[in-house]
TrEMBL record:
Gene coding for it: Tmed11
Principal cellular location given in the protein's record: endoplasmic reticulum
Membrane topology type: Single-pass type I membrane protein
UniProt-recorded name of the protein: TMD11 protein
Locations listed in the record: Endoplasmic reticulum membrane; Membrane
GO cellular-component term (any): endoplasmic reticulum membrane
Length: 200
C-alpha cells in the first residue's frame, strides 16, 4: 500500500488496515510542508515530527511513538481484524495558517521480511540459496495466513447470510399465516352480517 494524503499540522489522520493475526507490518513515511511563497510542498519538513499510534481491533495500543519528519515504524498484529494507524504532527502552532498544510507519503508493507542483499552477496552460493529459500518459506507462511484469515471472514459472512435468510423465511411464513387468518375472519364476519340482515 503506497499513498499520500494531506493533513493540517495539528490534525490527526487515521487509516484502517485489515490484517490477519501474527503479521509483521512495516511502514515508511515522509512529511512535506506547504510553502506559501513557492506554492508547493518542500522536499522535507525539518524540525517537524510525527506521532504514530497503532491500535488493535480490541482497542489495545500496539505502538505509540514520536518519529522525525521521515521514518520507519513496524509492529506485529496479535489479533486478526481492523487495525487503526494514526498520524499527528508534533507541531506547536495554535493557528491554522496558509503554511500549516502537510503532505504525508506513506508506504505500508504487510507480512514482508526483507532480504539483506549485502549479507547475501558476502556469503557463498549455498548460503545464498538457503537465505533466499528461507525468505520464500516466510512469504509462503504469510500467504497461508492471509488465506486462512479470508476463509474465516467468508465463513462468518456465510453464517450471517444463512441466519438472515432463515429469519426472512420465518417472517414470510408468519405474514402468510396472519393474512390467511385475517381473510378467514373477514369471510366469517361478512357471512354473519349477511345472515343477521337476512340477505342470505
Amino acid at each position: 500500500l503506497a499513498l499520500y494524503f494531506h493533513i493540517g499540522e495539528r490534525e490527526e489522520k487515521c487509516i484502517i488496515e485489515d490484517l490477519p493475526s501474527d503479521t509483521l507490518v512495516v511502514g515508511n513515511y515522509k512529511v512535506q510542508r506547504w510553502d506559501i511563497h513557492k506554492h508547493d510542498f518542500l522536499e522535507s519538513a525539518p524540525g517537524l515530527g510525527m506521532f504514530v499510534t497503532v491500535s488493535s481491533p480490541s482497542g489495545e495500543v500496539l505502538l505509540s511513538k514520536l518519529y522525525g519528519p521521515q521514518g520507519t515504524f513496524s509492529f506485529t498484529s496479535y489479533l486478526s481484524g481492523e487495525h487503526i494507524i494514526c498520524f499527528q504532527s508534533n507541531s506547536t502552532r495554535f493557528m491554522a495558517i496558509g503554511g500549516s498544510k502537510l503532505r504525508i507519503h506513506l508506504d505500508i508493507r504487510v507480512g514482508e521480511h526483507f532480504l539483506d542483499e549485502s549479507a547475501i552477496q558476502a556469503k557463498d552460493k549455498v548460503n545464498e540459496v538457503n537465505v533466499r529459500l528461507e525468505h520464500l518459506i516466510e512469504q509462503i507462511h504469510h500467504v497461508t495466513k492471509e488465506q486462512d484469515y479470508e476463509r474465516e471472514r467468508e465463513e462468518k459472512f456465510r453464517k450471517t447470510s444463512e441466519e438472515t435468510n432463515s429469519n426472512i423465511l420465518w417472517w414470510a411464513i408468519v405474514q402468510t399465516l396472519i393474512l390467511i387468518s385475517v381473510g378467514i375472519w373477514q369471510i366469517k364476519s361478512l357471512r354473519d352480517f349477511f345472515i343477521s340482515k337476512k340477505l342470505v
